[in-house]
């Protein structure tokens, strides 16, 4: 008879000594994981706090440039820009205006902080008077007519100096339309980060305060994904890759870790995730009430997103994470 039939494993052996714990840690947050979302609006010397997102502001171009210097000095490699236009209309024309707010911001940042990667959000909802992500026919969002505008918007961002464009609208065919338009204008080297699996989520609430993009009626369920679906997410991601997406995104992040994992395993593509405003706001609010340890939960939430398979992530905590890394890692 064998002696050790009932022997157990001593997995704690690697957990007693903090040096060993560090050596065997599988997932570590790095500064190169970080993409910082920023909101830009008209005016001068503007730094409006977003009430539902403590620590997040709407900037004018001049204060945005200062913010970008700080972001760069912290070692954060990339920002993503969202525009709040001075003027909204049915066609969202400031989205593709060469003198639109985002285009101005890109040029100003590039002049002063040229070693920061600028990604731009490409969607119509911040620019349309009705707050929807595309052109309307009555209350219906038109798909193919919207593609033309998205392509124009992406090209105008590239012309202003954007390093990467990120379509977030969830219209069918937008990646192909944007890829074709960029290539036609000679921007063959500009990558597309597509919001490939974007869910119709309740976690976006605070963002709409920040970007001032709440729809005037209805919701986004006719283009964003139903929260219960994962096979459909894979079809969405596959379609975007076939159309030419270089990086694919899952949004939101924390409540959709299973989707991130599946997307990463299935497609083996550079994968990103957006820790959205609601995820941030909940951690912030609970932290401010001392109901949780904010720093610890921040690190845990992002480590989980990375562990699930994200190569990088958009997070409003980017500056806090960069500071934490500086303080805690030699
Ligand atoms: Zn939109």
Textual characterization of the structure:
With 330 residues, this protein is of the alpha/beta class. Helices cover 39% and strands 15% of the residues. It has helices at residues 18-24, 61-73, 101-112, 144-160, 174-184, 205-211, 231-243, 257-267, 277-288, 294-308, 318-328; strands at residues 34-40, 47-49, 57-59, 78-83, 117-122, 136-137, 140-141, 164-167, 193-198, 247-251, 271-274, 312-314. Strands 1, 2, 3, 4, 5, 8, 9, 10, 11 and 12 form a ten-stranded mixed sheet that branches. A two-stranded antiparallel sheet has the order 6-7. It is globular and about 75 Å long. The chain starts with 17 loop residues before the first helix and ends with a helix. The mean pLDDT is 95. Bound molecules: zinc ion.
Instruction: Encode the helix/strand succession as letters.
Output: HEEEHEHEEEHEHEHHEHEHHEH
Question: Helical proportion?
Answer: 25-40%
Cofactors, ions, other ligands: zinc ion
Strand content: 15-25%
Outline type: globular
Structural class: alpha/beta
Overall pLDDT level: 95
SS field, number of helical segments: 11
The major β-sheet equals: 10 strands, mixed
**Residue windows where pLDDT falls under 50 for at least 5 positions:** none
Distance between the termini: 52 Å
Radius of gyration: 21 Å
User: How many distinct beta strands?
Assistant: 12
Labels describing this entry:
330 residues, alpha/beta, 10-stranded mixed β-sheet, two-stranded antiparallel ribbon, 11 helices, binds zinc ion
What order do the helices and strands come in, and which of them pair?
Blueprint: H1 18-24, E1 34-40, E2 47-49, E3 57-59, H2 61-73, E4 78-83, H3 101-112, E5 117-122, E6 136-137, E7 140-141, H4 144-160, E8 164-167, H5 174-184, E9 193-198, H6 205-211, H7 231-243, E10 247-251, H8 257-267, E11 271-274, H9 277-288, H10 294-308, E12 312-314, H11 318-328
Parallel strand pairs: 1-3, 1-4, 1-12, 4-5, 5-8, 9-10, 10-11, 11-12
Antiparallel strand pairs: 2-3, 6-7
Helix pairs in contact: 2-3, 3-4, 4-5, 7-8, 8-10, 9-10
């Amino acid at each position: 008879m064998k002696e050790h039939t009932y022997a157990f494993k001593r997995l704690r052996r690697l957990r007693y000594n903090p040096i060993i714990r560090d050596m065997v840690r599988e997932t570590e947050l790095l500064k190169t994981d970080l993409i910082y979302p920023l909101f830009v609006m008209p005016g001068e010397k503007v730094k409006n706090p977003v009430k539902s997102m403590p620590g997040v502001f709407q900037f004018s171009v001049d204060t945005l440039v200062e913010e970008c210097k700080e972001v760069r000095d912290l070692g954060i490699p990339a920002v993503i820009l969202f525009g709040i236009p001075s003027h909204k209309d049915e066609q969202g024309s400031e989205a593709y205006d060469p003198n639109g707010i985002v285009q101005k911001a890109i040029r100003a940042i590039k002049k002063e902080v040229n070693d920061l990667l600028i990604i731009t959000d490409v969607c119509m909802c911040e620019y349309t008077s009705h707050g929807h992500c595309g052109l309307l026919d009555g209350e219906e969002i038109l798909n193919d007519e919207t593609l033309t505008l998205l392509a124009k918007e992406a090209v105008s961002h590239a012309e202003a100096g954007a390093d990467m464009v990120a379509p977030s609208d969830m219209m069918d065919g937008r990646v192909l339309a944007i890829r074709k338009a960029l290539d036609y204008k000679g921007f063959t080297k500009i990558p597309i980060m597509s919001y490939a699996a974007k869910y119709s989520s309740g976690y976006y609430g605070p963002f709409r305060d920040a970007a001032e993009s709440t729809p005037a009626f209805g919701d986004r369920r006719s283009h964003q994904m139903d929260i219960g679906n994962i096979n459909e997410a894979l079809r969405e991601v596959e379609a975007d890759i076939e159309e030419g997406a270089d990086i694919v995104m899952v949004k939101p992040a924390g409540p959709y870790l299973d989707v991130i994992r599946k997307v990463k395993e299935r497609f083996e593509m550079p994968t990103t995730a957006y820790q959205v405003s609601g995820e941030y706001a909940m951690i912030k609010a609970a932290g401010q009430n001392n109901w949780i340890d904010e720093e610890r939960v921040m690190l845990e939430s992002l480590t989980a997103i990375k562990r699930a398979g994200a190569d990088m992530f958009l997070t409003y905590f980017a500056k806090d994470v960069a500071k934490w890394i500086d303080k805690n890692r030699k």
